[in-house]
Amino acid sequence: MSLLVCGTLAFDSIETPFESRTDMVGGSATYFAHAARYFSPVGVVGVVGTDFPDSVIGDFSSRDIDSRGIEVAEGKTFRWAGRYEADWNTRTTLDTQLNVFAEFDPKIPGDYRSSDYLFLANAEPALQRKALDQVETPKFVLADTMNLWIETARADLDMLLREVDGLVINDEEAFLLTGKRNLFVAAEEILKMGPRILILKKGEHGAFLLGEGLRFALPAYPVAEVVDPTGAGDSFAGGFMGYIASVANVEPSTLRRAMLYGTVTASFCVEGFSVETLAHRNRAQIESRFDELHSLLSV
Predict the structure, then answer these.
(1) For residues 60 and 20, what is the distance between their CA atoms, to the nearest angstrom?
(2) Quick check: 274 and 24 in contact, CB under 8 A?
(3) Which residues have C-beta within 8 Å of that of residue 75, sequence separation ≥ 6?
(4) Best CA proximity match to 170, nearest among 81, 75, 236
(5) How many structural domains compose the chain?
(6) Which residue from 76, 125, 120 is spatially nearest to 97, judged by alpha carbons?
(7) Is the dihedral of CA 94, 99, 103, 104 positive or negative?
(8) What is the value of pTM for the model shown?
(9) Which domain CATH number covers 191?
């Protein structure tokens, strides 16, 4: 297995200004895997409860998503409920039920341990490190985190940052992590903490890729209608890491192209609830949007 993700599989209930849905399949690993599989087979490590449908696991397998790392534990699957305001940037968490994820102890299957590329989706840093410690000699590790862990698990997060190659966070998380209010000053401080590259997400305003000899800005793909932005960040990471795994290098030119592919897969994600749009695209449609986005960068 070349590409591996450790993250959540969940049931989401979403309210938007236009529609509401309950008990949809979600979770960071779900979104990541559905985006990454357009480029590379991907293995998933996570935990679900006995209420998680067998049909969803079967759907994973039919899409080059290896589900052998998904543990089924007695109890209920992780659940999250949230509400978005009309600007799509304001999100309120209405309910979080960790359920079986509260006791999750990641166990990487033996043949996953030689994976070259690893995404540590947003979770408690100590849990992320447990997963990382089981992968033998990864070539590139990308991690996600959030304000909760910055505020409550800083020591563990600092250790994680010394062990990963890249970090993906949004601008407010970067300010919180460093105490700096200038975005590029904050980025320089984070790069000193250990990662070789930093991806700064700015939602509808795109993303930055920063590192030694790297300074790349990318707009978001102009989507005609946003339906649900849940999972966009993990879909971005899936496209980004999936492309890297497919070409098996992390040269600057590869990282820049990976940013475009991540942006494209995220654009499909936000056009539907859950993975209903993201899961039913094809590589030709992804390449078409890649070309459109690339043309926006041409002078």
Answers:
(1) 25
(2) yes
(3) 49, 50, 99, 100
(4) 236
(5) 1
(6) 76
(7) negative
(8) 0.96
(9) 3.40.1190.20
Give the domain extent around 44: 3-297
Sheet with 3-6: list strands edge to edge: 65-73, 42-49, 3-6, 117-120, 140-144, 166-170, 197-201, 207-211, 214-218
Q: Judging by DSSP bridges, how do beta strands 166-170 and 197-201 pair with one another?
A: parallel
Burial 56-94 (b: 16+ CB within 10 A, else e): ebebbeeeebbbebbeebeebbbbbbbebeeebeeeeee
Position 97, amino acid: Q
Mean local confidence (pLDDT), 64-78: 95
Mean pLDDT of the chain: 94
Contact between residue 47 and residue 134 where contact means Cβ atoms under 8 Å apart? no
Average pLDDT over residues 192-218: 91
Non-local CB neighbours of 108 within 8 Å, separated by 6+ positions: 4, 6, 45, 69, 131, 134, 135
Is the pLDDT at 299 greater than 70? The verdict is: no
